[in-house]
Here is the input.
Amino acid sequence: LPVVYVSEAMVDLYDWRPGTIQTLPVFNERHGSQKVWVAGIFRDYGRQHGALVIDLGIYQLMSGDQQYSGIAIWLVNQADPAAVLNTLRTSIPQFRDQEFMNRSDLRTLSLRIFDRSFALTYALEIAALLVALFAVATGFAGQALLRQKEYALVYYLGQSTTQRMAWISTESGLLLGLAVIWGTLLGLLMSQILIHRINPQSFHWTMDTSVPYFALIVLMLALISSGIAAALLASKRNLNPANLIPALREEW
Here is the structure.
């Protein structure tokens, strides 16, 4: 039997699983259909309704179709795509008016379309970050106001302004660190649901998880640092010695 390889969508939509024998409709004078053996699955991110790969000679023998709608060229390592394309267009006249796109250009175009589609999402992320920083600032400002007597007492016991700021920095850093770690874990969990559940159900393709550890660590440190800065700026007025002096007075 002829051997075919199918995309993941063929498995989900038509139940063409590896190891099964399926009927491939070919429309010519000799055959109305042809039995084929499904040998394996490949990932195809361009056709979510399904695709299959079959040997060109076998396909032409079954269908009698000698036309091509597209070709793919695999280059050896270190090969220059532009030089190879110029050589092909020079030596093969049929290639002169055809449009070619290499993998890097296709990736760049796809990312540009993706970024344009999710521009609003990025704006919402920035707005959410600003709201979170405002919440951190107001929260620590309120804490500093409520704990003024505590700060005033340690001030009279000899604590300097630098030590009080370091105190606030340590507290805010620990709280923000826990919040950032918790948020990162939740984000990773949601990403796994999107990658391994939503994508296969919606688009009939799968992909591997690639965690950008360096970018995540840099982002986490940036969030913690900006949160500490917001907490210090918001608490600075209430930690001023001029505001701490009357804090221990009791009203009778």
Observations:
- The chain has a mean pLDDT of 86.
- The chain has two domains: 1-67, 118-248.
- Residues 73 and 102 are 9 Å apart (CA to CA).
